[in-house]
Amino acid sequence: MMHLSTVLLLAPICSKAFVPARRIKTTPRLAAVAPAAAVVKSAAGAGFACAAVGFVSAHAAVSYGYGLAIAWHARAALRSATTPVAVRVLLAYGLKVTAYQALRDREKHYRDAVLPLFRALEKDTKCPFTRTTHKIPLVAGVAVLLALYAAPIRFLANAPRPRVTVFAGAAAAVALAVQTVADAQKFLAKRRAPDRPCTTGLWRVSRHVNYAADVVLHGAVAAAAALSAPSAAAALLAVLAPLMMVNIVLSATESLDGRQRLAYRDDAFEAYVAATPRLFFT
């Protein structure tokens, strides 16, 4: 069922990538960003290992690869963490994303609705002689994003301001709890009525409450990582991945809105859209 086993086999090969970063000689101009750059470099192997399943399945790369990479970075950072609160929440988040994706992939209605979108993404139109080379940009992009996320996690694990990580951990924990409840509500609703949207429970508060929780979680990580970074340059590098994830989530809500409008063409759905904000308040 998909390629979770492939990801689980690939991820451990990069365990050596998470040893404490070695001191590197650098010029004064680069000294400010060196700590974050060293962390990202040390996580490059893990990022590629988790993204490499994109050569087999784009769906696996952006779902299982993403969840496992977050969990892997968090687990590695906890080995030497002095401020572990937020990192423990991120470990739980990564494992939850992976487990929930595996659960959804067992549902026929989900496979029928989502997998064709990824097959279209994987379709080769430029390289008829191979089914691999055209996937390199996808795998490389996912690998870079996953490696970049190691920087904010490492800064949160050893933050000079412990209260910052407590705040980030609390915000992330609330977001994770909301998302988990919302996912469970939608999963059960789709089992009862696969052809109808979930409009009950937390989904009455937001049409994409799961994505709203993601925005809060990644936003909290970005803010806390920026405050925990040793320099402005390091802070800039540390916020790249979480802010990219926020952008991806916002784009996904727009795309999903369009697909839902086509799938649910009735007055009841239009009334739900009119009465319920897309994410938060609008």
TrEMBL record:
Keywords, ordered alphabetically: Membrane, Signal, Transmembrane, Transmembrane helix
Coiled coil: none
InterPro entries: UstE-like
Signal peptide interval: 1-17
Keyword check for Transmembrane helix: yes
An example Gene Ontology CC term for this record: membrane
Pfam families given in the database record: DUF1295
TM region positions: 136-157, 163-182, 233-252
Annotated Gene3D superfamilies: 1.20.120.1630
Name of the protein: Steroid 5-alpha reductase C-terminal domain-containing protein
Organism: Pelagomonas calceolata
